[in-house]
Amino acid sequence: xxxxxxxxxxxxxxxxxxxxxxxxxxxxxxxxxxxxxxxxxxxxxxxxxxxxxxxxxxxxxxxxxxxxxxxxxxxxxxxxxxxxxxxxxxxxxxxxxxxxxxxxxxxxxxxxxxxxxxxxxxxxxxxxxxxxxxxxxxxxxxxxxxxxxxxxxxxxxxxxxxxxxxxxxxxxxxxxxxxxxxxxxxxxxxxxxxxxxxxxxxxxxxxxxxxxxxxxxxxxxxxxxxxxxxxxxxxxxxxxxxxxxxxxxxxxxxxxxxxxxxxxxxxxxxxxxxxxxxxxxxxxxxxxxxxxxxxxxxxxxxxxxxxxxxxxxxxxxxxxxxxxxxxxxxxxxxxxxxxxxxxxxxxxxxxxxxxxxxxxxxxxxxxxxxxxxxxxxxxxxxxxxxxxxxxxxxxxxxxxxxxx
Length: 404
Description:
Layout: E1 7-8, H1 13-16, E2 19-20, E3 24-25, E4 40-44, H2 52-61, E5 66-68, E6 75-80, H3 94-100, E7 104-107, H4 109-114, E8 121-124, H5 132-136, E9 144-147, H6 157-162, E10 166-168, H7 175-190, H8 193-201, E11 222-226, H9 230-243, E12 246-250, H10 256-262, E13 265-266, H11 269-275, E14 278-281, H12 295-300, E15 306-309, H13 318-327, E16 332-335, E17 355-357, H14 366-384
Parallel strand pairs: 6-7, 6-8, 8-9, 9-10, 11-12, 11-14, 12-13, 14-15, 15-16, 16-17
Antiparallel strand pairs: 1-3, 2-4, 4-5
């Protein structure tokens, strides 16, 4: 069986030299009901060694066996909801749970292992590493890993492809939300919004002071975008059309849409860093981009420049960023992500006025999160049913992989 559909029909007596009372699908898998109404089914079939999936059971039970069936008929799905894999299912988004109600049984990783349940799907709601060893440890029948988010660097896509497991993600539906958040960080850093807020709420604010908390201009300045994908283009559009900014970008390939709509100019990374007033990181985490921003790169930036990271924390060398800020090599950092994430409570970045942070909230709007949840659920259910996913980085490569 190996998790693949197995269908036997009673008219096929010549093929199996026996009779099966109902149409059945994948009856070897304990979580797949043969019928929504029956709890057992009588099977009489001559043992056929060419059908290894049923051979082992028939060899043990013999013809005429009665096989108990589950009463729920729900797909068993492991939820990864915590970086430490200490999953708390009660904290799963209620709206997402509602979307899955009556369709799957949500299990924690611990529960799945403890009760020896063969999970058929994995739903990842955080950035905990999800690799081949993990899916092998929960029964070896996983057919889909659905990621709640567009970035999937925490999922070992190569290992999943080798096992015939489709990986789903949620591109497109969060583009506008992340672009908005990116520009919110840029404006907050430039105009020192967090510092102004703290001052207004403090006992020090008793009179107007003309030159207090003066910020940096945004209109007409130069923005450099590292990673000109969907989100990069939307950030460029906001910059060019909303603030008349000059747009530079660095990307592996040319962004025709970005250039046409915003007048963006493709340049090398060094030129982008040296010319930009705001450097925005929107690139995916890869071997090439990990540690991209280090001591040499910070030395190229203007002393008044702001670094905005909405990509992944590990794209920036954290220790190098601390030195760059302390030495005045750059003026400010606005971070939605960090490495590690979260930072230790006594980390230097947590005490610097030149740093503002948000807790990985790039896509966190009610509309975007609802759309992400729906796409993640759709991908999960489509994968469990053996159908193509709405969005997947590896399903085009699954054809040559070993079936589960």
